[in-house]
């Protein structure tokens, strides 16, 4: 592998680009070598060493004190959005962050509005950083030009670009640095620490007097700056805080904090032995899961990166790609998760936050939720309508609604769902204007049929199958 990576580096013209590429290949080789070592030694977790976190290791948000000086605290804060993902899973081209989610605003628009409001309200200078991938960088740069006149500093940097590896030979797929894009991959958000350091942005933030970095997924609309958690972190001196929230049956696969041999760790489902998977999914034993809203001390990142001390668990991800000869080949990409690094930071712990801080948009089912009357927009943040009682409704839209374009054509007007508990729609279904959904609503259209829900329909605790004529009778 080392020789193959050296040959790859030889294809890069000499200069600054070559030095950057060689550094990335060195980092990749270290990851690859660690993967082989882990595989050989079988570093499986010992289930008997796992216990629930202590009261100090997981704190309830309600017990945290209100801040007394928000403005002073915000002077020490920078916000980072993970912006490496494409909108392909929702049928979109380009960065997921530029999908419109609410009242003409994209994910990125809302993030900018939130921070701009903070900066105005407290006369602060909280910068927004975007960690792009090589997939999203160019498009993101084109989009952020429009924020030039806003009261916010936006900085971008790229996460690493690593070569995919052939599963059979364990050799790199690309033979030249300019090989097609499908030969490469961004190695997961665990790459944040190294990329932030290599880009120079880490040192720049420290020079500006920034101490805390609030990190979240770009598609989590609940991940707003929270003064209580920021204040708690500064007061306790914790180097890392992970926001957890209560599990529901929809979240059983989410990673959770555990105590492992006296140390706080993140446990992911991929690490769980098969015979314990059901136990892991149990809401009784593991009550919370990781939202990936993280508060991390910048000086600690610098210390750990410069001592090469962050060794997060490697997640091998198998893919199939078409090579230059037009053949399908199995490849491997080695990834890491930013949450897994928690065990390397001093005073690290979890804070159990309200569910409202976890509002991800992964599918068009989620999109229906955040576009609905369940929420209203306030300074770029989504707020739950106070008249809503109980948890958010469970929404499941079928494959006819998978792409945003299909969703928009079938749901031209978002239904009112303030009193909805559960919605399932499958098949060739369209919703008219002014539709109200309450309780449990299930609409199943068989193949070859069509159901159009008429304008103004009020559906409460109903199951609808068949076609439009059945509905009208």
From TrEMBL:
GO terms for biological process, alphabetical: (1->6)-beta-D-glucan biosynthetic process; glycogen biosynthetic process; trehalose biosynthetic process; UDP-alpha-D-glucose metabolic process
Keyword Nucleotidyltransferase carried by entry: yes
EC code: 2.7.7.9
GO molecular function: UTP:glucose-1-phosphate uridylyltransferase activity
Binding site residues for UTP: 96, 159, 188, 219, 362
Gene3D superfamilies recorded: Hexapeptide repeat proteins, Spore Coat Polysaccharide Biosynthesis Protein SpsA, Chain A
Keyword Transferase tagged: yes
Assigned keywords, A-Z: Nucleotidyltransferase, Transferase
Catalytic activity: alpha-D-glucose 1-phosphate + UTP + H(+) = UDP-alpha-D-glucose + diphosphate
Primary enzyme class: transferase
Superkingdom of source: Eukaryota
Binding site for substrate: 189
InterPro entries registered for this protein in UniProt: Nucleotide-diphossugar_trans, UDPGP_fam, UDPGP_trans
Entry function: Plays a central role as a glucosyl donor in cellular metabolic pathways.
Recorded family membership: Belongs to the UDPGP type 1 family.
Name listed for the protein in its UniProt record: UTP--glucose-1-phosphate uridylyltransferase
Species whose genome carries this gene: Cyberlindnera jadinii (strain ATCC 18201 / CBS 1600 / BCRC 20928 / JCM 3617 / NBRC 0987 / NRRL Y-1542)
Gene that encodes the chain: UGP1
